Amino acid sequence: MGTVVLSGAVVLVVLGFGNPLYWLAAVAVLFLYVRYGTGTSTPSSPSAGPAPTAAPAPTSYKAYRRRRDTQARWERRYRRERPLESRRQERERGR
Question: Does residue 20 surpass a pLDDT of 60?
Fold first, then answer.
């Protein structure tokens, strides 16, 4: 993904010799990629819902267990608070 963004920025810079607006577009693309595309930025506020699904891979077994236990707690809480929705999802999984 980074290679595509960087090569697109290079193309916009090359096109920018004819029209400087392309340089601005290249800067905007690079800014948006660095700000939102790398996945290393942290959210400004914690999420108010279940644990995010795109969590980074755990680096140790303890981290893996902690993540798995947290996920299990969230799933049990979801089933407890939304029994009808949980049963519907279980039925759909069984098909």
Answer: yes
pTM of the full predicted structure?
0.38
> SS in 3 state form for 22-90?
HHHHHHHHHHHHHHHHCCCCCCCCCCCCCCCCCCCCCCCHHHHHHHHHHHHHHHHHHHHHCHHHHHHHH
Structure-token pair, residue 35: 């700000």
* Structure confidence by residue, pLDDT tens digits, 51-61: 556 667 778 99
Place of tokens 């809480």: 77
CB 16 within 8 A of CB 26: yes
